[in-house]
C-alpha cells in the first residue's frame, strides 16, 4: 500500500514536469515565430532554462561548500583537489566545491535508484542504496584518475619542448620568470596551466627548485623529478644554469628516442599479449552464442561459484604478470 502511494506521487510529479516542459517548449516555438516580426532589444537579460538550472545549482554548491568549510576534517580531505583547479578557474571554484559535487551526485544517484525501484513495485534494499551511494561519491575520483593519467602523458610529451624553450631563453639572456612565462605563452594543454602556476609561485617569491618540486608533486613524473633534483643540486652547489638545462634537454631527448626505439621493438609482443588477454572473452562470447546455458552451472551451483572465483583470480594474475613482463622502465 505504501509503495502504491509513493508510486502514485512520483507519477503525478513526473506528469507535472512533463506538462511544464511541453508548455515551455510551445512558448519557445511561439517566441521564435513572433521574433521574425519584432526587433530585439539591445540588452537581453533573458536566461534559458538550462542556464537557470546551472546557475542555481552552482549557487547551492557554493552555499554548501561554505558550510562544509567549517569542518577541519573536510578541509583536509578537500585539499587533495587543489591540484585540479586550473589557472583560469582559481577565482570561480574552490577545492571544497568538489566535495559538494560528490555529495550531490551521491544523493542524486540514490534518488534515481530509489525511484526506479519504487516504479518496479519494490522498496530499494540497503545494498542498492549503499552501492549506489559509493559509486556516486567516488565517481569524481575515478574521473580524476583518468584525468591524471592523460595529463601526465601530455605533460611528458611536451616537457622536452618546454625545456628547449627555457634553455633558449636562458641563452638569450632572459631571466627565470621570463623563461617560464615564454613557455606558458608558447605551449598549450596541461603544461601551459602548470607553467602558469609556476610563474605565479615565482612571483610570490619561491625559488626555482621549490617551484619545480611542487610541480613534480602535482604531476608525479620521473622526468620532472629528475629536473627537480638537478635544480636542487644547482641551488645548493651553484653552477651554470644554461649547462644544467642543456644536460636536461639532452637527457630528455635521448630518453624519448630510446622510448620510441623500444616501442617499435616491443610492438609485436604487446599486440600478442593484448590478443591473449582478449581471447578468453572471445571464446566465452562465442560459446554463449552457440549454447546460452553452457556457463550457467558456474553461477547456479556452489562448486561453480568456487571455480568461477578461481578462474577470475588466475586471469587477474595472468594479466598482472604479462603487464609486468612487457613493461619497460627508464631510469
Explain what the structure shows.
The longest helix is centred in the last third of the chain and has 50 residues, at 241-290. Helix 5 packs antiparallel against helix 10 (241-290), helix 6 runs antiparallel to helix 7 (190-203) and helix 8 (208-219) packs antiparallel against helix 9 (222-237). It is built from 12 helices and no strands. It folds into 3 domains: 2-18 and 50-148, no CATH class; 154-249; 258-326, no CATH class. The model has no long low-confidence stretch (mean pLDDT 80). The chain has helices at residues 2-35, 49-68, 72-78, 95-120, 126-171, 176-186, 190-203, 208-219, 222-237, 241-290, 296-300, 302-326. It is mainly α. The termini are far apart.
Task: Give the SSE map.
Blueprint: H1 2-35, H2 49-68, H3 72-78, H4 95-120, H5 126-171, H6 176-186, H7 190-203, H8 208-219, H9 222-237, H10 241-290, H11 296-300, H12 302-326
Helix content: over 70%
Query: SSE string, helix = H, strand = E?
Result: HHHHHHHHHHHH
Low-confidence segments, given as residue ranges, are none
Portion in beta strands: under 5%
Number of strands: 0
**What is the average of the pLDDT values?**
80
Which word captures the global form? extended
Largest sheet: none
N- to C-terminal separation? 68 Å
- Assembly type: single chain
Rounded Rg: 28 Å
- Total of domains: 3
Secondary structure tally, helices? 12
Amino acid at each position: 500500500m505504501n509503495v502504491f502511494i509513493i508510486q502514485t506521487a512520483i507519477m503525478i510529479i513526473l506528469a507535472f514536469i512533463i506538462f511544464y516542459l511541453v508548455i515551455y517548449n510551445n512558448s519557445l516555438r511561439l517566441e521564435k515565430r513572433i521574433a521574425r516580426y519584432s526587433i530585439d532589444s539591445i540588452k537581453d537579460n533573458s536566461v534559458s532554462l538550462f542556464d537557470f538550472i546551472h546557475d542555481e545549482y552552482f549557487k547551492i554548491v557554493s552555499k554548501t561548500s561554505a558550510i562544509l568549510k567549517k569542518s577541519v576534517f573536510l578541509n583536509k580531505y578537500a585539499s587533495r583537489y587543489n591540484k585540479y583547479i586550473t589557472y583560469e578557474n582559481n577565482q570561480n571554484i574552490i577545492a571544497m566545491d568538489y566535495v559538494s559535487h560528490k555529495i550531490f551526485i551521491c544523493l542524486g544517484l540514490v534518488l534515481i535508484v530509489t525511484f526506479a525501484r519504487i516504479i518496479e513495485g519494490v522498496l530499494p534494499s540497503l545494498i542498492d542504496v549503499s552501492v549506489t551511494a559509493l559509486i556516486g561519491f567516488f565517481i569524481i575520483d575515478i574521473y580524476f584518475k583518468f584525468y591524471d593519467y592523460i595529463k601526465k602523458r601530455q605533460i611528458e610529451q611536451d616537457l622536452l619542448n618546454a625545456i628547449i624553450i627555457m634553455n633558449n631563453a636562458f641563452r638569450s639572456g632572459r631571466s627565470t620568470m621570463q623563461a617560464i612565462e615564454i613557455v606558458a605563452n608558447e605551449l598549450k594543454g596541461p603544461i601551459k596551466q602548470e607553467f602558469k602556476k609556476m610563474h605565479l609561485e615565482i612571483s610570490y617569491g619561491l625559488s626555482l627548485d621549490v617551484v619545480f618540486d611542487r610541480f613534480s608533486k602535482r604531476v608525479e613524473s620521473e622526468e620532472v623529478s629528475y629536473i627537480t633534483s638537478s635544480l636542487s643540486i644547482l641551488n645548493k652547489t651553484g653552477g651554470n644554469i644554461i649547462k644544467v638545462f642543456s644536460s636536461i634537454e639532452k637527457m630528455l631527448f635521448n630518453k624519448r628516442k630510446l622510448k620510441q626505439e623500444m616501442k617499435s621493438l616491443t610492438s609485436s609482443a604487446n599486440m600478442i599479449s593484448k590478443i591473449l588477454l582478449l581471447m578468453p572473452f572471445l571464446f566465452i562470447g562465442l560459446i554463449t552464442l552457440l549454447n546460452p546455458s553452457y556457463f550457467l552451472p558456474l553461477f547456479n551451483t556452489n562448486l561453480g561459484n568456487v571455480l568461477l572465483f578461481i578462474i577470475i583470480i588466475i586471469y587477474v594474475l595472468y594479466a598482472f604478470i604479462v603487464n609486468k613482463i612487457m613493461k619497460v622502465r627508464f631510469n
